[in-house]
Design a protein that fits this description.
- By secondary structure, the chain is α+β, with helices and mostly antiparallel strands.
- The chain has helices at residues 10-27, 112-115, 199-222, 295-298, and strands spanning 39-44, 53-55, 58-59, 62-65, 70-74, 85-86, 118-120, 147-149, 158-162, 170-175, 184-189, 231-238, 243-249, 252-255, 260-269, 272-273, 283-285, 291-293, 313-314, 318-330, 335-340, 348-353.
- A hairpin with a 7-residue loop joins strand 21 (335-340) and strand 22 (348-353).
Length: 355
Amino acid sequence: MLGRKDSHRWTHRIRTVGLAALVFVAAACGQTAAQAGTTYTVGVDGSTDEFTASFHRFFPNRLTVHPGDTIRFQRPENGEPHTVSFGTAIPQTESCPGCNFFEGGFGSKPRLDASMRCFLAEGRPSFFDGCSPDQQEPIPFDGTQSWFNSGGLLGSEEYVVELADDIAPGTYVFVCLLHTSNMKGTITVVEPDDAADDPADIVARGVEQLEADIGRVRSALEQQRTVDEGLVLAALEFDRARIWANTFTPDEIEIPVGGTVTWDIRGEHTISFNAPESARPLYERADDGSVSQNEQAAEPAGEASAWDGAGFLNSGLRAGLFPPARFSVTFTTPGTYTYMCLVHFDMEGKVKVGG
């Protein structure tokens, strides 16, 4: 896992890659930016240095391209997995939040069929077996495949989609299987002689959309929030759960010895004290290519009803929205205790016990 100082922020990363893409286009046998063989960059989620956040969006979520073009999907290292999923059998709706990726929705284990990288001409992967190594080998997207799935993207992984030279003109939908209701985009393929987007415009449009979302969260966070005594809000959601400020509000709280703190948890989080390095990251790549959970992070640990500040205390993975999930700790020993979320990097808080 990358340390904080090594973590990439999408805003900076996509600007760098965008410049690289322009250099590539200019050098590609005299092609112009609108000709076939162009490389585009799309952000998957985003981040900012101002606060810890998740943006369940693609930046930008629409682009017009030619057959034979390449799209690089890039994401920041903010802890949340995502997928980039095309295909006629890819679900466009969900029966419950997260059910297309997790066995029982958010807070449960990832599904093999959704968390594995997989490319099928027809049908869909087995729920129990996922995809074979041969089915995980990348192929060009020709628009007819039933299942064309990046699998769970972790850390700052990049996913590259090459469009087939013979892909038919039309509009193709891609989704994130974790956030199917909110996180969607389209690629419109046009004839080689028709106008397509310029890669620099795509980068600029993505950055503009991300900065607009950051501004909305900034304005909301600047408004003072009053919460009940002894209560901490674990994350704030905006725009129908498309944007998340992964912060603890308040981030510092004082209680007497024997006092209790309760966390209202919205989204998918842990409340973790004295977490060992081995408990992060929560999501890991398994040997078969699927995404698995780090059980040390996902499972509860310690005695929350009377905690003396020693040892690893963990809520385990909790998920909620309306209503939020709840987790409470009663502190029996004076001191200052720092805690974190094992899902989202840099999401931290502090409890001061006994003045």
